[in-house]
Amino acid sequence: MLECPGPATVVFDKALTEYNFGPEHPMSPIRVDLTMRLAEQLGVLERLTVVPAPIATEDLIATVHDPALIESVTRAGTIPGYTDLSRGLGTDDDPVFEGMHHAAAHVVGASVEAFRQVHSGAALHSANIAGGLHHAMPGSASGFCIYNDIAVGIQWLLDQGVERVAYVDVDVHHGDGVERIFWNDPRVLTISLHETGQMLFPGTGFPHDLGGADAKGSAVNVALPPGTADAGWLRAFHAVVPPLLREFRPHILVTQHGCDSHMEDPLAHFMLSVDGQRAAYLALHELAHEVADGRWVALGGGGYAIVDVVPR
Fold first, then answer.
1. Of 185, 204, 296, 284, whose CA–CA distance to 244 is shortest?
2. pLDDT tens across 29-53, in order?
3. pLDDT range class, residue 70, cuts 50, 70, 90
4. Euclidean distance between the first and the last CA atom of the chain, given in angstroms as a whole number
5. Which letter does DSSP use for residue 137 in this model?
6. CA–CA separation, 115 vs 129, rounded Å?
7. Which of 101, 106, 125, 135 is catalytic?
8. Are strands 252-256 and 165-169 parallel, antiparallel or unpaired?
9. For strand 125-128 and strand 8-11, is the pairing parallel, antiparallel, or unpaired?
10. Is 253:288 a contact under the CB 8 Å cutoff?
């Protein structure tokens, strides 16, 4: 196993737990708090530098999101009873809550800071465990995701002149928002391993989905059946991810680590163990060093076995 030869950071602020859809919602913010507590108890944080999480400006968010969405999210967080179903706001997946824009902008700001840490050379690896909101679309919230922090971060890198960014998504759900936003951009390779859309939200991410006319082959989807366990999942991972990353040679590797592929997750149907998930994370770490000189941004994602799985 590779040890990190350079500095590593985690971007965090307790205020990130204000991204909270309410006590009945599956995506409880306590999962972020428990993860940081466990990391501290295990001594993980002793090997990292914790850096503050800034709040993203509206201009930064607008690099990938429609201003009308930002305006509607802001209104949703300040007007009691406000809904905008055309923007995905007020649904069962994305109920509105007070301070919605501020909370979502904080997640975006934290992720972009992780991107900045790595791009600037301040850190070789950087993580935002509260990030990974991969379903948000340019004009609408979706699937527990208000703004797409991943896409904002990748776009920020492109705006800094980075020529190639690779994104690997191992959440059990297809990373549809990130794929959609960069569908026609050959500078961004998106790879998603997920449960087939025939059985699970968002119902997309099939092998024939390969990218737009100007970026054929830049989107890669590995759609697997319910019941997939460690052996089959890791076989698919190793067959697809390493050769594509070696061919693409990204400047930075970006990964989304939703842990809802675990066998105990209540919202999906994979049968992975923590050991199986960890094996993929270790492989991604090694690949970051092999293909991107170690430059790696790691983000959180889904995971709804809040106590028994997510913090681990």
1. 284
2. 999 999 999 999 999 999 999 999 9
3. very high
4. 19
5. B
6. 13
7. 135
8. parallel
9. parallel
10. yes
